[in-house]
Amino acid sequence: MKTPAGKLNIGMFDENRLIMRQKRACRINSEGADFLVAQVGEDFAHRISATNRQFVNGADLFSFSGQLSADLEKLENIAEISRYELPGIAELLGNKSEVAIHPLSITAFEYRKDDQFRNQNPDLTRQLDRLGELDLVVSAFGLHSCSDLPSVMVRIFQCMKNDGLLLMALPVNGTLAELRDCLTRAELELCGGAAARIDPFIDLQQAGLLLQATGFKLPVVDREEVVVHYDDIYALIKDLRAMGMTSGLNSANFRRPHRNLFGRANELYQENYSGRDGRIRASFCYANMTAWTPHESQQEPLKPGSANISLARHLKSK
Question: What CATH number should be reported for the domain whose range is 15-174+201-227+286-296?
Answer without folding.
Answer: 3.40.50.150
